[in-house]
Write a structure and sequence with these properties.
Elements: H1 8-13, E1 21-24, H2 31-46, E2 51-55, H3 62-71, E3 75-77, E4 88-92, E5 108-114, E6 127-130, H4 137-146, H5 154-167, H6 177-187, H7 192-200, H8 208-216, E7 219-221, E8 224-232, H9 235-245, E9 253-260, E10 263-270, H10 277-284, E11 289-293, E12 297-303, H11 310-328
Parallel strand pairs: 1-2, 1-4, 2-3, 4-5, 5-6, 8-9
Antiparallel strand pairs: 7-8, 9-10, 10-12, 11-12
Length: about 325
């Protein structure tokens, strides 16, 4: 059986000559999505191929916004970006068929580059490169550089290194050998002093009341902790909180939910090898929302019309964890 080639050159062979390329992330992009999209944008630029980085909804979090401004990464919100019927789309850090990315009607999906598990019924695409054992999509893009005759600029290397560090929590979760190799190759090409500064300055004193509410409402049950933020917040802040709660020695699985843009956003973290974050969040939100991710980290969304309160959400996650453990024993 012939395995299709996975490389930047193979991707280019699936593109229509003369048509614009839209490098699209998931609707609320994170560091890894933006970094991977920017790396791909830079590769297209070296080949003389016109491309644009686009996303569906909003850039959230001070640190990510500041990174985009500092590194001058050209991103465009789809609502403000005029598309053409001949445009071709390459999805990065997301997959057609998942609900975290809004597909553009009528446009060809020329490629999918991702490191998340495939949905049960993915939409069709011309080129697929999905490596769900990688900790970061930025690692995959680095390998595209390594397999070409070009190396990333210092700015592109900095972005890719930041993407790897954020999605692997500084090389502490979901790390593959490929991630370590990419880190080693990029570290001395990047401006890591600036990159690390941007990553570390991700919070504001305005977040203090949110952290306080999270701790006041924190519930712990058999290694699982849950909290809900009633104030308007962003996905970046609840992700930081979900990471931080794993510092409690009583906690191996954390769930943080919060109000965001008229929806309930949920961030999930697991350091229990027997509890896959993506599977638990999918089970907990069945019938009221959607979610996904990896074994060690995941997320989800519930519309306000389906949301009946934090008590119900807590019970859903508790039941999902209990049933997951029961099935595994």
């Amino acid at each position: 059986m012939n395995v299709p080639e996975k490389s930047f050159d193979a991707l280019v062979r699936h593109l229509k000559h003369g048509s614009r390329i839209l490098v699209q992330t998931h609707d609320f992009p994170d560091f890894d999505a933006i970094a991977a999209a920017y790396g791909l944008f830079c590769l297209f630029e070296t080949y003389g191929l016109p491309s644009f980085i686009v996303y569906g909804e909003e850039i959230q979090g001070f640190s990510l916004g500041e990174t985009i401004r500092t590194l001058k990464i050209p991103v465009h919100r789809l609502k403000e970006f005029p598309t053409d019927s001949q445009d071709q789309v390459i999805l990065v850090d997301c997959c057609p068929g998942n609900k975290n990315v809004t597909l553009l009607p009528g446009l060809t999906i020329a490629g999918v580059i991702d490191h998340h598990p495939l949905p049960s019924e993915p939409e069709p695409a011309l080129y697929w490169d999905v490596r769900d054992h990688y900790g970061s999509c930025s690692t995959l893009i680095w390998e595209y550089f390594a397999g070409s005759s070009f190396l990333p600029t210092k700015i592109a290397a900095t972005a890719l290194l930041m993407g790897i560090m954020m999605d692997t929590n500084y090389l502490t979760r979901g790390v593959s050998q490929a991630d370590l190799d990419a880190f080693s190759a990029l570290y001395f090409r990047a401006d890591w002093i600036s990159g690390n500064y941007l990553l570390n300055n991700s919070l504001s004193v305005q977040n203090v009341s949110i952290f306080q509410e999270g701790l006041e409402h924190l519930r712990v049950y058999k290694g699982f902790c849950f909290t809900f933020i009633s104030k308007e917040t962003d996905s970046d802040t609840i992700a930081v909180m979900a990471d931080d709660y794993l510092r409690f020695h009583e906690v191996a699985f954390s769930v943080v939910a919060g109000l965001n843009q008229g929806e309930i956003k949920i961030s999930v973290r697991s350091e229990d090898p027997g509890l896959a974050a993506s599977k638990v969040v999918q089970r907990a939100l069945k019938g009221i929302g959607f979610g996904g991710g990896h074994n060690h980290m995941g997320g989800g969304t519930v519309s306000l019309t389906n949301y009946t309160g934090p008590d119900d959400l807590y019970e859903r996650f508790r039941a999902a964890i209990d049933s997951y453990i029961h099935e595994a024993t």
